[in-house]
Structure prediction request, 331 residues.
Amino acid sequence: MIGTPCGKAIESSIYLLKETSTFSEGLLVEYMPWIPFDMEKYVDDAVLHSVEKMKDRDGQNVDMDLWVQLFAFDVIGEVTCSKRFGFMDIGTDNGSSDQIGRALHAAAWIGQVPWLFWAHDFVSLVFGDRLGITARHGGLRNFASNEISSRKHRGSDHHDIVDKLFQIRKEKPGKFDDANVLSMATSNVSDTTVISARFIIYYLLKNHRCKQRLMEKIDEKEKKGRLKLSADHGSSERYATTIGVNPWVVHRDTTVFGDGIEAFRPDRWLNDDEDDGGNMERFFFVFRSGARMRLGRNLSWLEMSKLIPTIFILFGMDLTEPEASWQKVCW
Prediction:
């Protein structure tokens, strides 16, 4: 189930609170220890670029729903190829998010009738590709393909994902070829990151008390000299028993997450009882867990932990239509 804006539900007027000349990378949220430092650099570059582009829009209405999508795509370009897609510069993703939407729509029913995928694969030789899930990346894949091709000929000192994939190809030439490099390079997409960031911004702007609480915590951390996401979001490796659970059900367990499950109450994560906080983190399965854990989980945490505090530190934001709400689309 994906929340999508209805009308101008998340369009916001933005205004600069702090001059960016006084804002340095030292104010960005400290990177989590399980993220390779060379990957963090690229996220920092994208965050700072986003700040500059938002500064250009000071006093204007900005579709934050779209802006978060553009930011996340540009981060993928940075960490994968050391080169942004440039979406924040042009203000559009060239239809990439629409392609992902069609892919998710197709995946929903293909998951229920999997034999249709193989049937489509067979007839596509005659009728062409008609399935969104098989054309998920479009322009993003072309971008990655061109970058990989040029990198093969000119080399690079960038320590990004493509560089790491080239190292694997060199070590395992018979098992990992150019097709594998391209496939893995384009497997990083921003669906979960964008959905989560949209929800955070939307509900913070809808709930002024929660927004004020966030700013108080940010100010508190800033005065101490650093901002840091202190929790390591769990490791399933400590458990020996293999089980299968439904995240939707787990996330509504009041013995873990407390009362008011359907309410936007981020204060629940600020519980002073460390045992309770630890339980919530262990049972937080948005990115799945165990063998099915999303490989991009740590990158997603890194993006959100940097972008969200940064824009709320530097910019004031008010919904242009406070009464508007968004709709939930189930596929």
The CA atoms of residues 95 and 197 lie 20 Å apart. The chain is about 50% helix and 5% strand. Residues 1-7, 20-35, 228-239 have pLDDT under 50 and may be disordered. The first strand starts at residue 2 and ends at 4.
